[in-house]
Amino acid sequence: MPELPDVEGFRRVAQRAEGRQVRGVQVRDAQVLRGVGSAEFQEALRRRYFGEPWRCGKWLVIPTAGAPNAEPGAPAVLAHFGMTGSFEWCGHGGEVHRHDRVVFDFAPGELRYHDMRKLTGLHLARQRGEVDELLAELGPDAQRIGAEEFGERLTRTRRGIKAALMDQSVLAGLGNICADELLWRARVHPNRATTELTADDLDQLHREMRAMLRDAVRAGRVPDDASWLTGHRDAPDQRCPRCSTALRRTRVGGRGTLWCPACQSD
Ligand SMILES: [Zn+2]
């Protein structure tokens, strides 16, 4: 499931269309369009110039402009990648996969929205204010939030730390994989109550989050190297890469959670 580092990777893919004019939009499956029909989506974007894509949490926003050097704004495309979405850049004439749902055509190539399960997809912000409306429920982006606000937002209500980290209205961008990796790095039990965390614990979590996201963004995903917890998620014999203790797998808030009972004691 795409989380902040993956969406940052898709942002870099979408950057290939920056400053380019949309020659046409092919909607191969309108089920990935949210709150907009094919005809309106195609008409709104045809002949527009894609601006610099930016990200908030797991959302990617691509503003457009009417002329090559104009300030980009609306309409804008907002992408949420759900469980299986991605952006891919392809040369012309390449084979179109059956899960390529929307294809944006540019002179140097195609930007394709690919999605197997179609749980979310592409939105159209028709006017400037509509981007803010669509993102209104989100908390600050996990890559940009400062330590003080991070601690303050996480401890507003008493709940398990993993659930709080994954709540997009508290903090935007972390999903199941990032949350497990972060808690393991910071040696915090996934069910520990947020209100029991000390100021030092919260500082440590913030520091580890910054470091983890920096490395994961560079890789375009949470790396599955042997030194990362994520590298052991699918191993037949799951052992902690730090202390070799057998990892535990439990459900927290309905999500499969991997943690080390020795490093992350309650
Ligand atoms: Zn351990």
Descriptive report:
This protein is α+β, with helices and mostly antiparallel strands and 266 residues long. The chain has 2 domains: 4-134, N-terminal domain of MutM-like DNA repair proteins; 147-259, Orthogonal Bundle (Helicase, Ruva Protein, domain 3). It is built from 7 helices and 12 strands. The chain has helices at 4-14, 38-45, 128-134, 147-154, 161-166, 176-186, 199-219, and strands spanning 24-27, 33-34, 49-50, 54-56, 59-65, 73-80, 85-90, 100-106, 109-115, 121-125, 248-252, 255-259. Strands 2, 3, 4, 5, 6 and 10 form a 6-stranded mixed β-sheet that branches. The longest helix has 21 residues, at 199-219. It is elongated. The structure holds zinc ion (ZN). Residues 228-265 form the FPG-type domain. Pfam families: Fapy_DNA_glyco, H2TH, zf-FPG_IleRS.
